[in-house]
Amino acid sequence: LAVGAGTAAVVGAIALLDWRRDAADRSHLGRFVQDVIDGEGPAVIGRKLDANLGLLVDAPVIVVAAVPLIALAVLSLFRPAALRLHGLDRAQAADPVLRPLLLACLCTALTGFAVNDSGVIVPAVALIAGGPLLTAIWAGIWARERA
Questions:
Q1: Where do the structural domains in the chain lie, given as residue ranges?
Q2: Would you say the pTM of this structure is higher than 0.70?
Q3: DSSP structure class, residue 95
Q4: How far is the first Cα of the chain from the last one, in angstroms, to the nearest whole number?
Q5: 87: which of 43, 80, 97, 110 is 20 to 30 A away, CA to CA?
Q6: 43-71 pLDDT per residue, tens
């Protein structure tokens, strides 16, 4: 919960800093702040939600895959032993930076999902980037334990 609140605060601060730039130089976050000021915030959120839901409805396999993957990601971060993910448990014990890194990746993926029109793609890219990294970490630990 604290990580989520911290993430929201950082994204909000970046959005406000971006909003202070010239209108032509703003990113979508700065433009969103201006939309909220102009009273268009709910319309923008509705449009983004509609775009994301449209992607989910057009490809329901995304929902079928996403729900268990998110649940697995959360459980593996907080209770790896409960899922018998002993390799992840050992990896987190061997490298104390791993758990915060994975949590940051999960928060980034969920934030990207929430704020982008094509947000369902962001968690997929996070899996593409994070999957090989985790595989390499587990393989390294496995090799060290076997040596």
A1: 1-39, 46-146
A2: no
A3: -
A4: 40
A5: 110
A6: 988 888 887 777 777 777 766 666 666 77
